[in-house]
Amino acid sequence: MTSDAVVDALVRSTFQVMGVLTRIGAANDLSLTQLRVLGILRDRRARVTDLALFLGVDKSSMSGLIDRAERRGLLARDKNPDDRRALDVFLTPAGLELTERLYAEAREALEPATRQLDSEQQQNLVTLLEPILIGSAGPGPLKPSR
Amino acid sequence: MTSDAVVDALVRSTFQVMGVLTRIGAANDLSLTQLRVLGILRDRRARVTDLALFLGVDKSSMSGLIDRAERRGLLARDKNPDDRRALDVFLTPAGLELTERLYAEAREALEPATRQLDSEQQQNLVTLLEPILIGSAGPGPLKPSR
DNA sequence: GAGGGATAGGTGGGATTACCAACTAAAACT
DNA sequence: AGTTTTAGTTGGTAATCCCACCTATCCCTC
């Protein structure tokens, strides 16, 4: 099985990046999970259940998670126009700003790693990761909420 | 900045794999962090502080984490021969067995994703991820403990 | 168009995980 | 020897997570 090596590398890099993100989050009073929420919402709104599914977390865990972030003014809830049971969650301007700052920090923190690749290799890596992101590993990618 | 795209893809794939691992862990009564500990210890022993550094977690968080896993018979502590303050942590046979089983589950769960790449692309991906793992992103890779 | 089941989100309770500050023991430095 | 640093643990509090339930809404079928 060649795919053993891929999964191994994928898991390793996941652990590595996770460590970096955990530290960046901690420096900004955010848990890794909160960081993930911000990351997911960076370019879309999502319903609570979709977030929970993607995070691999219980719906009820999302409630408090969103509550706390909402109390900090980072994100907000909005009635979903198509389904009155559902709520869309999205970043506030402050949340978006923080998220962009965190991404900048991540770029900086990962720079020693990415610097090891020349520009063509970087492009290749992005291309190769693309199908992984799409290929439904788990709940599938988040669809635009509606 | 080309590296933006790399970091973006890296973070995205990290989130994706994290979700998969979270679910696998939950199915086996393991938190994501515990999973990471097992993953790190799969092929080496490590000192408590090194684990904490790599995980991006406080030393004190490690103690309880190790306690609980030790109570479950998954890992054990051992005096470090070179530094009498330090403790090496390592997997028990049961822990190793569980870890291998979890990796198998991860391979299975990620198979729909990795299947998107042919064998040559997989090899390329592994090669491109290699420097990321080595390029000191954060505390650097764990050195063999001594 | 009225039930019946499924789904979206939230509450409340209990265990785990997290941080910080303080502590002991051992190393390292001067 | 004495001071400072480092490794790991403990104790206290807040965040996170799961589970079992709950209400409101949707969807489906009759």
From TrEMBL, chains A, B:
Residues 3-134 form the HTH marR-type domain. It comes from the Bacteria. SMART domains: HTH_MARR. One of its GO terms (molecular function) is DNA-binding transcription factor activity. GO terms for biological process: response to stress. PANTHER family: HTH-TYPE TRANSCRIPTIONAL REPRESSOR YETL, TRANSCRIPTIONAL REGULATOR, MARR FAMILY. This is MarR family transcriptional regulator. It comes from Paractinoplanes tereljensis. The gene is marR_2.
